[in-house]
């Protein structure tokens, strides 16, 4: 892969990651609830989920999702239902629960934050289909593909981690608002609605990329 091609990939990776979506919502929600230090584990989970999606796209399952309406719908609706569940859970979370998590952040299981990030990404079929369309644009078939795949995956995941760090950090900056029960309840509902809107966006996605 030439330097010019990699720079194009690098720029595209930032545009892809910055675009609001389920990952950004998850990062902001975690930063708000747990602060940057703990909340960033969710971003790590998102990056792992992205890497898994990349592998899925490379081995051809992404093609199945793009061409099989049944497979596409199964994965799509599983992702929709999961995001709706997350949104409902956050929307309905009592203020007291949020404040407790702020006070005992060290007791928050890291593996749960990582797992949530992984699930948010791998249960979004649009990601696999999108990667299937993007990856070939940066491949040089006259050169070893494995190295190129590794470079593309590393670039995408590294940029995504950086962007999600910004989202998590910005949300963590307003953690002080959570000390006010009224603000805490409004913030909780706000992020719950964002999750549900992301789910509805996925639900409205058709077979246009097929």
UniProtKB/TrEMBL annotation:
Membership in a protein family: Belongs to the Rht family.
Organism of origin: Advenella faeciporci
Protein name: Threonine transporter RhtB
Residue ranges crossing the lipid bilayer per the database entry: 39-64, 71-88, 146-170, 190-207
Coiled-coil intervals: none
Gene Ontology molecular function terms on file: homoserine transmembrane transporter activity
Record carries keyword Protein biosynthesis: no
Keywords: Cell membrane, Membrane, Transmembrane, Transmembrane helix
């Amino acid at each position: 892969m030439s330097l010019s091609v990699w720079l194009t990939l690098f720029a595209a990776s930032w545009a892809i990651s910055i675009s609001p979506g389920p990952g950004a919502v998850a990062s902001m929600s975690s930063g708000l609830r747990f602060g940057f230090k703990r909340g960033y584990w969710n971003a790590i989970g998102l990056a792992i989920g992205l890497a898994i999606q990349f592998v899925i796209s490379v081995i051809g399952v992404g093609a199945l999702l793009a061409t099989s309406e049944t497979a596409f719908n199964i994965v799509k609706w599983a992702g929709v239902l999961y995001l709706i569940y997350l949104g409902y859970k956050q929307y309905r979370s009592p203020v007291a629960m949020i404040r407790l998590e702020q006070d005992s952040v060290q007791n928050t299981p890291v593996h749960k934050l990582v797992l949530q990030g992984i699930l948010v990404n791998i249960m979004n079929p649009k990601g696999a289909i999108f990667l299937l369309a993007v990856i070939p644009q940066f491949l040089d078939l006259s050169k070893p593909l494995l190295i190129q795949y590794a470079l593309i995956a590393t670039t995408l995941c590294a940029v995504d981690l950086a962007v999600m760090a910004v989202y998590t950090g910005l949300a963590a900056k307003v953690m002080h608002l959570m000390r006010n029960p009224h603000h805490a309840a409004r913030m909780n509902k706000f992020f719950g609605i964002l999750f549900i809107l992301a789910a509805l966006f996925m639900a409205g996605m058709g077979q246009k990329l097929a």
